[in-house]
């Protein structure tokens, strides 16, 4: 790329140095910078990849624009984590991948496990990360919806890119860049989808119980996927041709429904992502970055991103006694989410013998 300018911004006692493609600084307020970038053009050379004509359209689109990493920010949260002069002491930042049309999910999360609050004196804060959807009037309506939510709740980061499955990796990369600039002092992050159920009390207890790690050391834990392999069937949502990934096995990674990161590890992923081309499956991409950084993800028995098991058909699969000890479960929808949160927090909930210690052990 030509005419690269190096932009430095002091954050505390460190500098955030990034290379941009001919950025123009438009406005600076508090600890937020806004840039304008030339519109990212289609990489027509991608069409010369062997077998390209037979790829699904969504994959073709991904390959045409894979190089694009700079997009205008529509909604920002420059003071979410405090200011440069007075950063807020945040123990757990909830980073929730959402879609513009998922208003009901966001509203339920705000009232349940993603409430911004303090638990045992440790602050929990919430951010939804999104792109855009639709064209013309539909896109305009959805953007107005998000702006209205943002004005009321101050919890949305939105960039002007198409919010699709294959762009989840881009969403992660853009968030990590934002975190580096605005929120690197947090201790830990929960990175998850808007259809997971998380017991944030248990998560804080688990993280705070790790006396050897206050977020300044490596931590990436969740439902560990080992020896995962690329799907070569072109009708699958997860289709990855050998032209895009030659190996038959993915690096180890945590299922993208929800996993926990220390701020150290999040910033390491951000650093190494700059040298790793975007990949259409976001959790695999995170595993690629960890492998490059020589950091290993770890399993946690209390995180279930591929469903859960109830040992008897005579018991409701949403029995709160089976969920009060978990950290995170996928997949939940708003009605069950709302009910479960209130049930597990009911002081009158009576359950049989449980092994509650399982949620704080890895």
TrEMBL record:
<keyword id="KW-1133">Transmembrane helix</keyword>
<comment type="pathway">
    <text>Protein modification.</text>
</comment>
<dbReference type="GO" id="GO:0000139">
    <property type="term" value="C:Golgi membrane"/>
</dbReference>
<dbReference type="Pfam" id="PF01762">
    <property type="entry name" value="Galactosyl_T"/>
</dbReference>
<dbReference type="InterPro" id="IPR002659">
    <property type="entry name" value="Glyco_trans_31"/>
</dbReference>
<comment type="similarity">
    <text>Belongs to the glycosyltransferase 31 family.</text>
</comment>
<keyword id="KW-0333">Golgi apparatus</keyword>
<keyword id="KW-0735">Signal-anchor</keyword>
<dbReference type="GO" id="GO:0016266">
    <property type="term" value="P:protein O-linked glycosylation via N-acetyl-galactosamine"/>
</dbReference>
<protein>
    <recommendedName>
        <fullName>Hexosyltransferase</fullName>
        <ecNumber>2.4.1.-</ecNumber>
    </recommendedName>
</protein>
<keyword id="KW-0472">Membrane</keyword>
<keyword id="KW-0328">Glycosyltransferase</keyword>
<dbReference type="GO" id="GO:0008499">
    <property type="term" value="F:N-acetyl-beta-D-glucosaminide beta-(1,3)-galactosyltransferase activity"/>
</dbReference>
<keyword id="KW-0325">Glycoprotein</keyword>
<keyword id="KW-0812">Transmembrane</keyword>
<dbReference type="GO" id="GO:0030311">
    <property type="term" value="P:poly-N-acetyllactosamine biosynthetic process"/>
</dbReference>
<keyword id="KW-0808">Transferase</keyword>
């Amino acid at each position: 790329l030509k005419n690269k300018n190096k932009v430095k911004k002091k954050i505390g006692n460190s500098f955030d140095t990034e290379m941009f493609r001919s950025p123009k600084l438009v406005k600076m307020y508090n600890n937020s910078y806004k840039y304008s970038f030339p519109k990212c053009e289609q990489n027509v050379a991608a069409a010369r990849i062997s077998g390209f004509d037979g790829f699904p359209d969504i994959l073709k689109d991904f390959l045409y624009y894979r190089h694009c990493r700079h997009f205008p920010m529509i909604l920002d949260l420059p003071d979410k984590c405090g200011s440069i002069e007075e950063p807020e002491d945040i123990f757990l930042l909830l980073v929730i991948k959402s879609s513009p049309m998922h208003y009901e999910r966001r509203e339920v999360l705000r009232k349940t496990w993603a409430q911004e609050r303090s638990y045992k004196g440790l602050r929990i804060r919430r951010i939804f990360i999104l792109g855009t959807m639709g064209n013309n009037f539909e896109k305009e309506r959805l953007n107005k919806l998000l702006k209205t939510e943002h004005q009321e709740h101050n919890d949305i980061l939105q960039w002007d890119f198409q919010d699709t499955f294959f762009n989840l990796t881009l969403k992660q990369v853009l968030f990590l860049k934002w975190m580096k600039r605005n929120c690197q002092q947090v201790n830990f992050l929960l990175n998850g989808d808007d259809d997971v159920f998380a017991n944030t009390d248990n998560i804080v207890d688990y993280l705070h119980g790790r006396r050897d790690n206050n977020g300044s050391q490596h931590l990436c834990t969740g439902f560990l996927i080992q020896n995962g392999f690329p799907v070569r069937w072109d009708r699958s949502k997860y289709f990855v041709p050998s032209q895009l990934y030659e190996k038959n096995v993915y690096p180890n990674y945590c299922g993208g429904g929800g996993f926990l990161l220390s701020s150290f590890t999040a910033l390491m992923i951000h650093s190494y992502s700059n040298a790793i081309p975007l990949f259409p499956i976001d959790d695999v991409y995170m595993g690629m970055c960890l492998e490059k950084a020589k950091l290993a993800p770890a399993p946690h028995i209390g995180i279930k991103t591929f469903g859960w098991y109830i040992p008897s058909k005579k018991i409701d699969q949403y029995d709160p006694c089976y969920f009060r000890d978990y950290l995170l479960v996928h997949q939940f929808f708003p009605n069950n989410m709302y009910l479960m949160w209130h049930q597990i927090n009911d002081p009158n909930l009576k359950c049989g013998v449980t092994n509650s210690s399982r949620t704080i052990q890895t």
